[in-house]
Amino acid sequence: MAVIQVKVKPGARASALEQAADGTFVATLKAPRVDGKANAELVALVARHFDVPRSAVTIKTGAGARLKRVQIDAG
User: Fold this and answer.
1) What is the DSSP letter of 56?
2) What is the spatial distance between Cα 12 and Cα 24, in angstroms, rounded to a whole number?
3) Where are the domains of the chain?
């Protein structure tokens, strides 16, 4: 189990997940911050990046904020 810190930037032209120099991640998301669409896209993006199923990714804190703590269960 790993927990990462992610800064989310919704409404971008393309979705991407990049690791910053300080070890945190920056996620640019195409989805807007409406009805949980950005959170759903973040979960899918993190799952794809770490090659785990979506069910293994959980937003632990910050569901309504730009700074989130995301838990990844490896198996």
Assistant:
1) G
2) 19
3) 2-72
- Helix, strand, coil in percent for the chain, rounding step 5: 25, 40, 40
The pTM assigned to this predicted structure is 0.92
**3-state secondary structure at position 48:** helix
The pLDDT assigned to 74 comes to 80
User: Hunting for tokens 């770490």 — which residue is that?
Assistant: 50
Q: What is 2-72's CATH number? A: 3.30.1200.10
Residues 12-60 pLDDT 10s: 999 999 999 999 999 999 999 888 999 999 999 999 999 999 999 999 9
